[in-house]
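FAQ

Q: What does a record look like?
A: Structure on top, sequence underneath. For example:
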């Protein structure tokens, strides 16, 4: 054999990264030599006794690589172990093709037993405690996808610590199934939420390793160079290489139209979106045109997406992708056609000030500025309403209480005066820009539909008007989709022709922190039958996740298409300390508590989240007086990234993550804000929407923490807290 393909099995890389630096360096050299010539005498490549598919090869004097032969020239690196440990424990290595998922699984039973016993000595001692999984038959566990070689050990587990020790080293599906059963889920729920999404529909030949290698459940590197990336970049490089089988299915599926992936925080929606972009680019014909659009709401997130895509696909992929936040995209469309010449864009804060000044001048008290701005932005501009008659018929999804025809007439008149006010000042709100961009793109799409390639005059006319005869994009991928407005969606729908793989949408309405409620189906974006859900969190511990879910309460959440969404099956296999809830008599005392908690943690990435902007400066000042350097988080992210502590409002934490987090000021009157509470009697539907958004903000903030979280308040604690 002159050359071989070497792949790396998921979980093996985690163990490799724990090895001494010298051994990792030797692995780097080994993988290169093995690919060039596995039979090189220096590698001592040989089959292990009693294992028809398991081989060993020399990494250095003291360590050996364990390689599983998948057939032909395909080998999988499943472990790197001390030399003597390999040859003294040949009966402790097991491998199989899981009959449920069809994926390859490798089990080092010695390591699993040792780690469980080492961490929990009681497992090796006689005990009368009841086995955690004693009520589940072997047949049931196997049906759920549990690895058969582990059944004996599973039957001995009597407490959570033992379970966590086993789950850390067992195949991923086995760990997920056991933890779900332990958390109280029924067999039917586990089958539906965890096993079925990764199960194969065809009959599985448990001896055909070549077929198993190609299945999503065999989580291995897909390129030889991936092993080098793992060794060089550690955990940071894993997301580029390993996808959970459910994620990979979503990425690689060929969709007949728009598709959507949802899931809670940390489930990998953004990772799936990035891999999807890479796949779409690789399917394009050669060229240098930016045929794929990757967009999101926040410009800071857009910058992060660019860096990640560059790391994932390199310059060849990035040069075919337009990566831009949605408001900048709309602005570019308007500027490109010179529609907004002489105009200055203003954000929602300034737009609300203009509304309030108009209401004061008109002595109007029936509606507040926030309500009118949302009505104008989401309904009139969002739906492209052009006349009062159209507004009378407009659908007001998510807008709260119903309004009469007479009230609509009054609101329309106020909106007209508001537009005149902005025109006189040469201002445009971002929603006006989005509406204008949507109208321009719809006109462009209509012109393309009527394009006649045989009429040269038509070509000339379209080029002169800035409208071309080819689609602006062939594919569009949207991240954080829940934050886009109706006008944004109208624009995106017009930018890409309807057809296979036109729109790929990633989002979670539980994380909606802006007032954008849409019905994608009504806008020509039909995702019915093409929706998927991710449920496994890779960021947040089980303890933090449980707290975050309780913060959401019993609210109902939409799915961007007039249906309902939930976080059924949302789970984490990570474990950590329980969240800490702390009460203080005053805000001043709470500030002192923040300082003390930061000092207690000592290091790592730490952040403080607060409900109001004024509180950011107050936290920074108190930390500064204590000699702790901190940095506020602005629209572009932390102003000083290297600062040991970041401080920001809950809005600013979207897309960020920290090892430890303090959510401070979670007091009644602040979370939710008092202005929301006052809506309860006058506009109960709007009150519910605003309360839901306040819960989302708290939920987003809580799920930014990876390892530890403290939630504090002064005075009376928020009604959202348990």
């Amino acid at each position: 054999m002159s050359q071989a393909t070497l792949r790396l099995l998921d979980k093996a890389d985690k163990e490799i990264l724990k090895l001494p630096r010298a051994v990792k360096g030797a692995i780097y050299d080994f993988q290169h030599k093995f690919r060039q010539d596995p039979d090189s005498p220096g590698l001592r490549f040989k089959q292990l006794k009693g294992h028809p598919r398991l081989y060993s090869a020399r990494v250095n004097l003291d360590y050996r690589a364990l390689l599983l032969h998948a057939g032909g020239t395909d080998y999988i690196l499943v472990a790197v172990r001390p030399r003597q440990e390999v040859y003294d424990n040949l009966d402790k290595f097991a491998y199989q093709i899981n009959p449920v998922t069809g994926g390859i699984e490798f089990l080092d039973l010695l390591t699993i037993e040792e780690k469980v016993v080492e961490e929990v000595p009681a497992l090796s001692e006689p005990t009368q405690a009841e086995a955690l999984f004693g009520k589940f038959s072997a047949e049931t566990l196997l049906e759920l996808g549990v690895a058969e070689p582990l059944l004996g050990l599973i039957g001995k587990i009597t407490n959570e610590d033992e379970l966590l020790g086993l789950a850390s080293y067992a195949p991923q599906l086995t760990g997920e199934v056991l933890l779900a059963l332990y958390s109280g889920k029924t067999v039917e729920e586990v089958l539906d939420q965890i096993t079925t999404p990764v199960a194969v529909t065809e009959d599985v030949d448990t001896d055909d390793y070549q077929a198993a290698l190609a299945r999503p459940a065999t989580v291995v590197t897909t390129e030889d160079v991936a092993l080098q990336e793992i060794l060089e970049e550690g955990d940071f490089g894993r997301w580029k290489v390993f996808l959970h089988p459910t994620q990979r299915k979503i990425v690689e599926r060929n969709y007949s139209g728009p598709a959507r992936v949802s899931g809670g925080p940390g489930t990998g929606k953004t990772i799936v979106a990035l891999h999807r972009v890479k796949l779409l680019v690789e399917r394009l014909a050669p060229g240098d045109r930016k045929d794929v659009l990757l967009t999101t709401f926040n410009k800071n997130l857009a910058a992060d997406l660019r860096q990640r895509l560059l790391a994932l696909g390199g310059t060849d992929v990035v040069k075919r992708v337009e990566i831009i936040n949605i408001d900048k995209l709309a602005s570019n469309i308007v500027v490109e056609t010179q529609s907004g010449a002489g105009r200055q864009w203003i954000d929602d804060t300034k737009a609300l000030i203009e509304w309030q000044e108009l209401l004061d001048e008109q002595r109007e008290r029936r509606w507040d500025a926030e309500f009118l701005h949302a009505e104008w932005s989401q309904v009139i501009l969002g739906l492209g309403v052009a006349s009062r008659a159209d507004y009378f018929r407009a659908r007001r999804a998510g807008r709260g209480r119903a309004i009469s025809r007479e009230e609509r007439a009054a609101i329309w008149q106020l909106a007209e005066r508001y537009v005149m006010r902005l025109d006189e000042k040469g201002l445009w709100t971002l929603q006006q820009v989005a509406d204008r961009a949507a109208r321009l793109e719809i006109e462009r799409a209509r012109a393309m539909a009527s394009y006649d390639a045989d009429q040269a005059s038509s070509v000339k006319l379209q080029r002169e008007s800035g409208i071309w005869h080819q689609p602006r994009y062939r594919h569009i991928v949207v991240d954080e989709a829940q934050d886009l407005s109706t006008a944004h969606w109208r624009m995106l729908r017009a930018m890409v022709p309807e057809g296979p793989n036109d729109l790929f949408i990633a989002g979670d309405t539980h994380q909606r922190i802006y007032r954008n409620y849409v019905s994608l189906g009504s806008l020509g974006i039909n995702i019915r039958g093409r929706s998927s859900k991710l449920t496994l969190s890779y960021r947040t511990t089980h303890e933090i996740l449980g707290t975050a879910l309780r913060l959401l309460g019993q609210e109902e959440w939409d799915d961007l298409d007039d249906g309902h969404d939930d976080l059924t099956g949302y789970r984490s296999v990570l474990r950590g300390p329980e969240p800490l809830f702390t009460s203080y008599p005053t805000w001043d005392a709470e500030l002192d508590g923040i300082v003390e908690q930061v000092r207690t943690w000592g290091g790592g990435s730490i952040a403080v989240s607060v409900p109001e902007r004024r509180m950011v400066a107050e936290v920074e000042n108190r930390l500064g007086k204590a000699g702790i350097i901190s940095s506020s988080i602005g629209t572009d992210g932390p102003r000083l990234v290297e600062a040991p502590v970041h401080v920001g409002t809950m809005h600013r934490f979207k897309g960020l993550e920290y090892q430890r987090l303090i959510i401070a000021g979670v007091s009644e009157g602040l979370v939710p804000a008092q202005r929301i509470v006052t809506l309860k009697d006058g506009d109960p539907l709007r009150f519910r929407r605003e309360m839901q958004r306040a819960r989302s903000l708290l939920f987003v903030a809580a799920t930014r923490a990876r390892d530890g979280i403290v939630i504090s308040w002064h005075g009376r604690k928020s009604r959202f807290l348990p």
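Q: Is there anything notable about this one?
A: The CA atoms of residues 626 and 683 lie 45 Å apart.
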